[in-house]
Amino acid sequence: MEWADGTPSRRLLSQYSYISFSSLWPVNIPRAKWALVIAGLYSLGIIVAGFFVPMYSSLSVTSTGKVTHGSATLVAENGLNIVFVLSVPLILTFAIWTALRLHTRRGAMALAWTLAGSLALFNLVAMMTIGLFIVPVTICLLYACSRFSRTSFAQASDI
After folding, report:
1. Distance from chain centroid for Cα 138
2. Are the C-beta atoms of residues 89 and 137 closer than 8 Å to each other?
3. H and E: helices and strands count for the chain
4. pTM, rounded to two decimals
5. CB 55 within 8 A of CB 74
């Protein structure tokens, strides 16, 4: 059921049009680990964006009528203290990763859920500023906590 050039025909494609979501993930790496990796990379991107992405704009008009437009990044406007606020998702991602790695210890899962919930509260508090940008990290961390099972980290210990 192929054309001469080797491409599948429409009839063959229609037979296999259903692709499950689980087939898109590598078999040997659980989804909880992917969620943690995505959360970590996104958190690192938030810190880098604080240095390079302009978030503030300015407009000044001189007495002669010359208009000047300007912009500033979060770090340029608020100083290096804002880096601590921007690093909260990365710190919590690492802490949740550590808690999930130590799942056999008493209270490790409760700690992971508490940290993920505290990041959700951080989103609510900072919603009018940077909280909206941190929502994807929170979703990934909550997903990792919910998908975690004792076998997921035992299958591949190289997280």
Report:
1. 7
2. yes
3. 7, 2
4. 0.71
5. yes
